[in-house]
Amino acid sequence: MTPAPIHTPMKAPISARETAQSFVLIRLGERRFAVPAPQVAELVAPSRIFRFPHKSPEVEGVILRRGRMIPISDIADRLNGKKLTTRRFFLLATRRFAGQLDWIAVPVSGDCELITTDMMEAGPNDSPHVAGWLSHGGEVIEVLHLSVLTPGPAEQPAPISSPNFAEALP
């Protein structure tokens, strides 16, 4: 009689592995999303928004916090199809653009919760703004990639050369 073969569990591919991390759950309208906790600087009460003329529709204005001008980006519009009508907090988070770390303020409509859980990494068919997925309290929650959802520093326009008025004189 031959012994039964020993079955060892197969390792999941890297894209499907889970890793325990801390996340801040935020409510944007009717849905909850997650942001990796190391990216979250603080939650602040809504404060005065400074608006000024600019060409970036994703930036609503700026708030002043700890000596910084922090742009506000209502990402709920891109995730849920409508802007938030009520705001309870601003989530101040960091994101990376062009190798630099900068800050963004995201309006949040409900309570926030800090959790530690396993994250399933995003797959090739997921939207670019999805960094991964978590399961918490019976919900499947998207982990947001804020650098994709929020506008980055604008490209610097090419310098305009000043006209040579001496050449225009007769």
Note down, in words, how this protein is organized:
The protein is mainly beta and 170 residues long. The chain has a single domain, classed as OB fold (Dihydrolipoamide Acetyltransferase, E2P), CATH 2.40.50.180. The chain has 3 helices and 10 strands; from the N terminus they run E-E-E-E-E-H-E-E-E-E-E-H-H. The strands form 3 sheets. Strands 1-2-10-9-8 form a 5-stranded mixed barrel. It has a 3-stranded antiparallel beta sheet with strand order 3-6-7, with no helix packed on it. Strands 4-5 form a two-stranded antiparallel sheet. Strand 1 and strand 2 form a beta hairpin. The longest helix is centred in the middle third of the chain and has 5 residues. The N and C termini lie far apart (109 Å). The N terminus and C terminus are likely disordered.
Please tag this protein with its features.
five-stranded mixed barrel; OB fold (Dihydrolipoamide Acetyltransferase, E2P); mainly beta; three-stranded antiparallel sheet; 3 helices; 170 residues
Largest sheet: 5 strands, mixed, barrel
Number of strands: 10
The CATH architecture is: Beta Barrel
Decide which structural class fits the backbone.
Answer: mainly beta
Helix and strand sequence = EEEEEHEEEEEHH
Number of helices: 3
- Low-confidence spans: pLDDT under 50, at least 5 residues? 1-16, 154-170
Approximate strand percentage? 35-45%
- Termini separation comes to 109 Å
CATH topology: OB fold (Dihydrolipoamide Acetyltransferase, E2P)
Helix % is under 10%
Shape: globular
Instruction: Provide mean pLDDT, rounded.
Output: 79
**What's the alpha carbon Rg, rounded to whole Å?**
22 Å
Oligomeric state of shown chains: single chain
Name of the CATH class: Mainly Beta
Number of separate domains: 1
Give the CATH H-level superfamily. Answer: CheA-289, Domain 4
* Strand ordering within the main sheet: 1-2-10-9-8
